[in-house]
Amino acid sequence: MSDLKLGDSIAVDGVCLTVSDLDSGSFSADVMHETLSRSTLGKLTQGSKVNLERALPSEGRFGGHIVSGHIDGCGTITKREKDDNATWLTIKADTELLRYIVQKGSIALDGISLTVARLTISDFSVSLIPHTLRETTLLDKQVGDLVNLETDILGKYVEKLMTQQSTASSKANAESRITQEFLLNHGFGT
Predict the structure, then answer these.
(1) What number of H helices and E strands is found in the chain?
(2) What CATH code is carried by the domain that includes residue 37?
(3) Does the residue 128 lie in any domain?
(4) For position 185, what pLDDT does the model report?
(5) Torsion angles phi and psi, residue 122, rounded to 5
(6) C-alpha closest to that of 92 among 77, 114, 106
(7) What is the DSSP letter of 3?
(8) Higher pLDDT among residues 139 and 155, named by residue
(9) Consecutive H or E run containing 21
(10) Is residue 162 part of a domain?
(11) What would you report as the CA-atom Rg of the chain, rounded to the nearest whole angstrom?
(12) What ranges make up the beta strands (E) of 44-182?
C-alpha cells in the first residue's frame, strides 16, 4: 500500500474497485448496487478475509490470463476434495456463465486466475496447488460458499462480434430488393 493513491484500481475478491479514501493502513471504495448484486461483496462482514490485488502496471510482467475485475456472477462450491498435494473445487454456475467457460481455459475465482480442469453442463472444477491455497482465501472456502466468477473476456468479445455479424448479414438479406425474379427481368440469366 506504500504507493497506493486515490483513484487507483484495486481488486477485492476479484471485484475491481476505485480507491476513494486512503490512510496508512487501509483504503475505502464506493460500491454500487450493480456490484453488490453480481458479487459476494454484499455478504462480507467486518473482519472478513478477502483477496486483494493491485492493477497490473503497463511495464509489469503478464503472468496469467486477462482478469479485468468485472465480475460476471457468482458460483457455489459444491465439492471440495484432496488429491495428493492438490485440492479440487467444483463450482456450480448458471448456464449463462457456463457458456463462456471452456475446459483448459481460464476462470477467475474471487480474482484468482485459474485453469478449468473439468467442465460439465452444470458445473466446472479447478485443481489448486498448495501455494494458491496458502496465499489466497480459497483455503477457507467450504462447500456451500459463494465465489465471484469472471469468465474469459475473449469468449464474450467473440460472441458479441459473431452475433453482430450474423444480425447484420440477416438484416442485409431481409432488406435486399434483389430477387431472382428481379435479375431475370433485367437480363440476368436465361
Answers:
(1) 5, 10
(2) 2.40.30.20
(3) no
(4) 81
(5) -125, -10
(6) 77
(7) T
(8) 139
(9) strand 15-22
(10) yes
(11) 23
(12) 52-54, 73-83, 86-92, 106-109, 112-119, 123-128, 146-151
* Phi-psi label, residue 49: left if phi above 0, alpha if psi -120 to 50, beta otherwise: beta
Band the pLDDT of 169: cuts 50, 70, 90. Answer: low
Strand order in the sheet with 15-22: 27-29, 15-22, 9-12, 52-54
pTM exceeding 0.85: no
Residue 101 has which C-alpha cell? Answer: 467457460
Q: CA 160: distance to chain centroid?
A: 16
**Would you give the distance in Å from CA 33 to the centre of its chain?**
18
Confidence of residue 96 (pLDDT cuts 50, 70, 90): very high
| Helices marked H in 40-177 | 95-98, 130-135, 153-175
User: H or E element: which one contains 27?
Assistant: strand 27-29
Q: Which of 133, 65, 127, 129 minimizes the C-alpha distance to 100?
A: 65
How many domains does the chain contain in total?
2
Give the CA distances from residue 33 to residues 19, 41, 101, 163, in Å, rounded to whole numbers and listed in that order: 17, 10, 26, 29
DSSP 8-state secondary structure symbol assigned to residue 155: H
- What residues have CB less than 8 Å from 83, skipping those under 6 apart? 127
Domain that residue 165 falls in: 156-185
| Residue 172 pLDDT | 59
Is residue 20 a part of any domain in this protein?
A: yes
Block residue for cell numbers 478449468: 116
Task: Say if residues 116 and 101 touch (Cβ distance below 8 Å).
Answer: yes
